[in-house]
Structures are given as structure tokens and as C-alpha cells.
Write a structure and sequence with these properties.
- This protein has about 550 residues and is of the alpha+beta class.
- The protein is built from 23 helices and 17 strands.
Length: about 550
């Protein structure tokens, strides 16, 4: 892990140093670096712990009102979050589902303080087998999954990719976990759940992990979390150490493979003035997989045996065409569309439920896209008719930051497009001969795909935002044979001014006395002609008259 910067060392020393003068001097040195309100978010998270530490110093230091205000705000927010979740905790217990408090929630319950440890949400863990029932209980009580995630998607697609998801109700925010212990698997999870105990809180009893389990889970979270998660782990560790059985903690660390994080704590805490010491581990931890193994998405695949055989043979396009022609599409959407639509908004989880096959994960928090994360991400789109079509696939800006951003697009087993060159829009020409009915199955296949145990950022492949079915008068044949120019792409991507100009040109074309002139070459496409030349487009010419009077003589292509 990256060593602490001097700034963060001062901050943590102010929160953790046993010696009063050392804590005070570190606090003064940190505040001298700049105004408190300009500090990074990960540092602001530690301020409640600093307030708790400086409050024990006595009259040696005057606590700033901003710091005291941060502690009061932390208490208020934590009180609101816990109050909002108590009824649902009781409902889960009544249904025979043992909810386990985790992370900041567990810390506040163990130490009986809602002001010294901030919580952005209430972390609750339920057994994975009870995920569906737990979601149903929350939904009946008025809680909704964040970012538009549907319960169907959560229980089928998302549950094999993530360990938790957030639910909101008014000011309440529950982070519902269905796996704990990370890649340590069932052995660590069973150990954590068996050793949990009940603590009283506001007239109720809430299940909490032991200090050893709580510290272990915090290490797991920090190992794959943000810099702020690591700072919070360091700030919380001395609290847990005073109550920890090191033999039990060592067993969990060996199962969970977080020995590097433990060694980092062991080296760092003495430098921050902490008196408690961490003993060396007697044996190295087990090697933990980099992420949870992903199960096959059987629920999203039709003809599973044939699909598996095709995948095992290297996904040859000729075999895919044969299988789709004989058996129909591989995709099995959760809630298939009954009617075609003009725009498929892939930012919405409900759309992925309606058209998505295997290989799709979850929407981005700001709902700019939904990520594909498989070697073969499929979409089954209903069409108005089995005729030539032009589809436009738009990617999110996130796609350009992805390690696997280059991919091929297949339509019913025919390769029709390939990403590249920094483009965020792909034209997908669909020919009538590719179709076997009023539907098309798209397959998005990354050119380089990371193994399924890779980190999340390496598994993501395509950040899809929407697919638009474009009217055939835009020239399917010509647009399909080459990448459209910037003018066409601007219009398709929503340039309002150019779209309005195009509408005016089309109105001129509709009234043109030359549209059926014998002087025009057979098959002349006026719209393609004007879109190929930006000067003609800007002048809003009648393409039929212009070609007869000028374009033919100028040698312009039509």
C-alpha cells in the first residue's frame, strides 16, 4: 500500500496519538496547511474522531466551532440513518433473516456513540440465500433500489457481480450486503455470523459482529475501496484493538488473505503515536482471489447447451448464424418487449431487463450508461419489420477510459461494426438478408477480454447509453458502407441546430419540382447528396435542382 503523506500522517496523529501534546501539535500543524473546509473528503471523514480525541485533552486546546459542528452534524445524520432503518431490521428478524450490522454502523453500536464515526449509509448484511426475501421486505416497506435498479436485475444479474446495493426511503439509506468476507468464501462468513452477538439500541436488539470480525471486514473494505476507506480503517483500528482476541483475528486474516493490509497497519500505527501494537502473524495468509468468481448467466441464455458449445469453439460467426437461423436468439430478457420502439435507452435498468441477454452488469450511479462486462454481451431488439434498418449505438464518455474499449458488433452472427478511433457513436447497418423475423440479436464482443477474476475496471467492456432506430431515408445502403461524416454523426448525436436545418431541407425536397426530373441519374438520393457536402447543407439547397444545374458539371458524387 502507498505510504501516508505527511498531511495525512498529521491528521491521523491528531486523532490517535495517546500523548495529548503530540495530538494537539499534530492538529495545529494540519490546520496550518489550509482551511478545514478545503480539505479533501477522505480527510473530512476523520474529523469526528479528532473531535473525540481533542475533547479528552481538557483546557489545553480550544476546539474550533467548525470541528464541534462536524461532530454534531455527524451525530444528527447518524441518528436519522439509524432511526430510518430500525423497523426494517426488526422486520427482517421477524422473517427469520438475521441482519448483521457492518462497518460504521457496527462501530457506532459497539461503542455507543453516534458522533465519533461518520456513516454515509447503514450497512446491513443478510445471507445470500435470503436476498430475494430481504429485497421484498424492503420494497413492501417503501424502500427502492438506487439508480433505477430493478429487483429482477438485482437478484439475477447484479447478485453474481456485486456484494451489495443501496436502497433509499426518504432520508434513509441502507446498503444491503448479501456476501461478507470477500473472496474468503463461506468459511470466513460462517465464522463471522456464528460469533455475532446482540446489542441493545433504542429499545431494540441489533446483531453485530465481534470486534475481530469488524476489524477484519474493515480491512477487506479498505483493500479494495477508496483512500478514504483506508484512512477510516486506520482511525478505527485502535478502538477495535482494545477488545480484540488476536488469535481469532489471525484466523480470519488467514482465511481472507488481507495480510498485506494487516502488515501495513502494524507498521503504521506506532508512527501515529498509538500505544497498542499488532503482533506478527505466525503464518502467511491464504492467497485470496482478486474478486468473486462469476457464475454462468444461465437465466439470461436460451439454448444453453448450444450456446456453451459455440462459446467453447471460440464463438465462430458462421456457427452463430446457423444456430440463430435454426433455433432463434440466445438472449432471454427478463421482461421482453412486446412492441418495437424507436429508442432503446440503455442507461435504464428496465431497458436492459427488456432487451438484455447475458453480459450486462448495472447502471452507472449518475445513470449515463449501463456497462457490459462479458466476452459476449447480447441485446435482443424487436424491429418494426424484417427489412433494412440503420441502428445508431451511442456510448458514454466513460467508455473512453475503459481498458477494453475496442469491440466488434455482430447482428445475428454477421459482423457489422467495430469500435475504435475514440468514437462514441457507431452506425449499425442491418440488412434484410440477416434477419429471420422482426428482431435482431446484437452481440458486443471486446477484442481483448480480461479473465473473469480481474478487477472490476478490467472486466468492463462497453459503456452503452442508447440505441436509436434511424429512418431508412437517411440512406442505409450508403451509410452502411462507410463511416458517416461528421455532419451526419452530429445530427444523429442530437445537434439541435443541424437537425432543424435538415428538417428545412427535407421540406424543400418534398416540394421540389425537380425531384422526378429525367435529368437526374437513376436512383439519385437527394438526402445523401446534400449530407455529403457541408457547403450544400449550410446553404440549405434543393439537392435535386443543385445537381441538375451545378453538381453534375462539378463532378460531385451522388
Amino acid at each position: 500500500m502507498t505510504p501516508l503523506t505527511e498531511r495525512r500522517r498529521l491528521l491521523l496523529t491528531a486523532a490517535l496519538a495517546v500523548n495529548d501534546s503530540e495530538a494537539v501539535e499534530s492538529w495545529k500543524a494540519w490546520t496550518a496547511l489550509g482551511p478545514m473546509e478545503t480539505a479533501p473528503h477522505e480527510e473530512l471523514r476523520i474529523l469526528p474522531a479528532i473531535h473525540a480525541r481533542l475533547s479528552r485533552v481538557g483546557g489545553a486546546i480550544e476546539i474550533p466551532q467548525k470541528l464541534a459542528g462536524k461532530a454534531r452534524a455527524t451525530f444528527t445524520l447518524n441518528s436519522i440513518l439509524t432511526s430510518a432503518a430500525l423497523e426494517e431490521l426488526a422486520a427482517l428478524e421477524a422473517a427469520g433473516i438475521p441482519p448483521l450490522a457492518m462497518k460504521g454502523f457496527a462501530h457506532c453500536l459497539h461503542f455507543g456513540s453516534l458522533s465519533r464515526r461518520g456513516m454515509g449509509d447503514i450497512d446491513i448484511a443478510v445471507p445470500e440465500a435470503d436476498l430475494g426475501r430481504s429485497v421484498a421486505i424492503l420494497e413492501r416497506a417503501g424502500w427502492t433500489a438506487c439508480y433505477g435498479l430493478t429487483s429482477q436485475a438485482l437478484e439475477t444479474r447484479v447478485a453474481i457481480r456485486r456484494d451489495s446495493w443501496n436502497f433509499r426511503k426518504g432520508p434513509g439509506n441502507i446498503d444491503l450486503h448479501w456476501r461478507i468476507g470477500g473472496g474468503a468464501g463461506t468459511a470466513a462468513e460462517d465464522m463471522i455470523r456464528r460469533s455475532a452477538s446482540m446489542v441493545p439500541f433504542r429499545g431494540r436488539s441489533i446483531r453485530v459482529p465481534t470486534p475481530e470480525a469488524a476489524l477484519f471486514l474493515a480491512m477487506l473494505h479498505a483493500e479494495h475501496g477508496t483512500p478514504g476507506d483506508l484512512l477510516q480503517l486506520i482511525a478505527d483500528t485502535p478502538d477495535w484493538l482494545a477488545r480484540t482476541d488476536f488469535a481469532v483475528l489471525a484466523d480470519l486474516i488467514k482465511l481472507g488473505g488481507v495480510g498485506d493490509t494487516y502488515d501495513f497497519l502494524r507498521e503504521t500505527l506506532p508512527k501515529l503515536g498509538v500505544s497498542e501494537s499488532l503482533p506478527a502473524l505466525s503464518s502467511p495468509p491464504l492467497k485470496r482471489p482478486r474478486r468473486w468468481p462469476r457464475e454462468p448467466e444461465a437465466a439470461r441464455i436460451d439454448h444453453r447447451v448450444l450456446h456453451g458449445l459455440w462459446a467453447a469453439l471460440g464463438r465462430p460467426a458462421w456457427l452463430e448464424r446457423l444456430l440463430l437461423r435454426s433455433c432463434g436468439p440466445f438472449s432471454r430478457p427478463l421482461a421482453p418487449l412486446s412492441e418495437p420502439v424507436e429508442t432503446f435507452d440503455l442507461r435504464r435498468c428496465a431497458t436492459i431487463d427488456a432487451v438484455g441477454g447475458p453480459g450486462w452488469s448495472w447502471p452507472e450511479p449518475e445513470q449515463t450508461c449501463c456497462w457490459a462486462d462479458g466476452p459476449d454481451a447480447r441485446l435482443l431488439l424487436p424491429l418494426a419489420a424484417p427489412t433494412d434498418q440503420l441502428l445508431v449505438l451511442t456510448l458514454s464518455s466513460h467508455h473512453q477510459r475503459d481498458v477494453s474499449r475496442e469491440f466488434r458488433v455482430y447482428a445475428n452472427g454477421h459482423e457489422i461494426a467495430r469500435s475504435g478511433g475514440g468514437r462514441t457513436t457507431l452506425m449499425l447497418p442491418i440488412r434484410a438478408h440477416m434477419l429471420r423475423g422482426p428482431w435482431v440479436e446484437l452481440s458486443l464482443r471486446p477484442v481483448r477480454y480480461r479473465p473473469r477474476f480481474a478487477e472490476l475496471a478490467e472486466v468492463r467492456t462497453v459503456a452503452a447509453s442508447r440505441i436509436v432506430v434511424v429512418n431508412g431515408t437517411l440512406g442505409v445502403q450508403r451509410l452502411g458502407s462507410s463511416i458517416p461524416n461528421g455532419l451526419v454523426r452530429d445530427i444523429l448525436e442530437g445537434d439541435k441546430a443541424k437537425a432543424e436545418k435538415l428538417a428545412r431541407i427535407r421540406a424543400v425536397m418534398a416540394q421540389s419540382p425537380d425531384r422526378d426530373s429525367r435529368l437526374l441519374p437513376p436512383g439519385f438520393d437527394g438526402l445523401s447528396y446534400v449530407l455529403n457536402y457541408e457547403d450544400l447543407f449550410d446553404a440549405e439547397v434543393d439537392p435535386y435542382a443543385h445537381y441538375i444545374l451545378h453538381g453534375r458539371g462539378e463532378g460531385r458524387s451522388w
